[in-house]
Amino acid sequence: MRFPKNESLFGGFPERAVSGTVLALVGFQLLALHLLTLHPLALGQQPKVTEDQVKAAYLFNFAKLAEWRRDTLPDGPSPLVIGVSGGEEEFLSILKATVAGKMVGTHPLDVKPVTSADEMKSCHIVFFRVSGGKHTETAIENLTQAGVLSVGEDASFLRRGGMINLIREHGSVRFEVNSDALDRSGIHFSSKILALAKTGSEPSHDTASNAASETSRQEGPRRVERIVKPDYPEIAKRMKLAGIAQVEAAVNPDGTVKEVRVVGGHPVLVDALVRAVRQWRYQPAAKETLEVIRFSFVPQ
């Protein structure tokens, strides 16, 4: 399932893939409008929309927007299967109602509970409602090799090798993406979706170093050795301004930032990100590389 090059889901950002772990803010709009939107929405704004409905909508959108390997989802009328591991029957009912009668291309959607490794491998998406121990890690790795999208909902899910993790933050459901795991699985998402990607407001060294940069595929990801977090501008605080800023940094072989080019975002926010990125330092490399940095500014 591919997006036309000129299609604009979110606008403003180039067609580039994201490497490493990123956080992206995508909310749930209205079930009655076929769940076709991916925009921020606090859960409290729609009293009738539960957190489980939001998560079900995410799973439906992941199914719609993923580019699947042909050996896992060949052309034709075969179903696209979403498996649910663990959890209660109520969520299964909500997910079934969310995808009822809907199609992904020529594929009808099917939902089923899964417990065994063989059942999971027969799916295209597996949502782990309960994530635990070595068993989960082994299951996730097997799914990665089989080209099955693994989705979880706990803080350790990406560290265990999962591909997408749903979290609740500031009253909204957000998701984290482990793009390294996605790359290994052969599952791809349009970078127009990941244009909303953000690093966490308090990233760890490993998370930020992976999330912040993108290098040529020949060289592999280039680790950030020193990160300076952008200041949230005072004027942005007064305006309660939020949004994604994105820049490209040309990085010298010795790891220093040569120059920073603005790609997109509000000028006030972008300026803060540019000032911060100029102070970053990457690991040395054989040649100059181009790194993509995205950061989400949240009102404080």
Plain-language structure description:
The structure is a single chain. The chain is α/β, with parallel strands linked by helices. It folds into two domains: 21-198, 3-Layer(aba) Sandwich (Rossmann fold), CATH 3.40.50; 213-297, 2-Layer Sandwich (TolA/TonB C-terminal domain), CATH 3.30.2420.10. The chain contains nine helices and 16 strands. The strands form four sheets. A nine-stranded mixed sheet has the order 4-5-3-6-7-8-9-1-11, sandwiched between helices. A three-stranded antiparallel sheet has the order 14-13-16. Strand 8 (164-169) and strand 9 (172-178) form a beta hairpin. Helix 1 crosses helix 2 and helix 4 (133-146) packs across helix 5 (179-185). The N and C termini lie far apart (39 Å). The model is unreliable at 1-47 and 197-220 (pLDDT under 50).
Q: Using DSSP, what is the number of strands? A: 16
State which percent range the strand residues make up: 25-35%
Helix and strand element order: EHEEHEEHEHEEEHEHEHEHEEHEE
Count every helix, treating DSSP H or I runs of 4 or more residues as helices: 9
Largest sheet properties: 9 strands, mixed
**CATH first level of the largest domain: which class?**
Alpha Beta
The average pLDDT is: 75
CATH topology of the largest domain: Rossmann fold
Which segments are poorly predicted (pLDDT under 50) over 5 or more consecutive residues?
A: 1-47, 197-220
Rg, Cα atoms, Å = 19 Å
Q: What is the first-to-last residue Cα distance? A: 39 Å
Q: How helical, in percent, are the residues?
A: 25-40%
Overall 3D form: globular
